[in-house]
Amino acid sequence: MLAGITALAGVALCVYSFLLPIMLVALLFEGARSGIVASLLATGGGAVAGVLCLRVAVDERRLAVRPCESCGRVHGRSPDSRAERAPGWAFAGAYVAVAGFGARISVWLADTFAGRWQSEVSRANVSWSAMVVFLVLMSLAGTVLPLALAHRWGRLWPAWVVPLRGRAVPRWLVLGPGLFVGAGLTAYFGIAGNTAWIRGDFGGPFLPLFLEMAGYTLWGIGLLVACASYAALTRPPCRQLIRKQAR
């Protein structure tokens, strides 16, 4: 019961801090203006408090299920190795994220073929090189990233990466971007964006707007679901289990 309440508090604080990724990007591109710094401190504090609450909730749950004292796993129920197959729900989350990206990019492609996107970029006075870099990173975050979170090659380097094949992929190389992008999309578009749309704060043609908002939301949620599996599969090996196997 206490773990559940603490988890709800953590989730609420993280939702409250949904603008943290946006503030970080604004800080990089717009500089340390007073308003940005104040928002960054507020959202950052909320995010840290939320993560700490979730950590406490996880620890409380672990005590309730009596996990392994060495690694915190419940052996027989938790994955023990990176080489194990991800559960079905992780693949579902990953491919939902890819589908969400596909829905979003379909609107961009339609605007590009109609010539609307090029004129918008020109009016915004954004360099084409910056837009190309943005689109490449966006495409990687919508295809390679979610698939890496679910498939084995995202945890162990595949055979075609000859110098590294079979070795462990650095955990936060995949999990960090997954959490950052997933949380940012879910909070900004899934919560704030959809709320503003329902309230009528902005509008436009229904189908493109629906594809954008639903696409971003599914993309973010799918990434977070896949991240949960990836985090469990990439825990450090259990020392106690290794000692037992060595005997």
Concise synopsis of the structure shown:
73% of the residues lie in helices and 0% in strands. It is an all-alpha fold and 247 residues long.
Describe the structure.
Keywords: Membrane, Transmembrane, Transmembrane helix. The chain crosses the membrane at residues 7-29, 35-58, 89-110, 130-151, 172-193, 213-233. The protein contains 10 helices and no strands. It has helices at 2-16, 20-30, 34-65, 88-114, 116-124, 128-142, 144-150, 171-199, 206-233, 239-246. It folds into 2 domains: 2-65; 88-233, no CATH class. The model has no long low-confidence stretch (mean pLDDT 82). The protein has 247 residues and is mainly α. Helix content is 73%, strand content 0%. Helix 2 (20-30) packs antiparallel against helix 3 (34-65) and helix 7 (144-150) packs across helix 8.
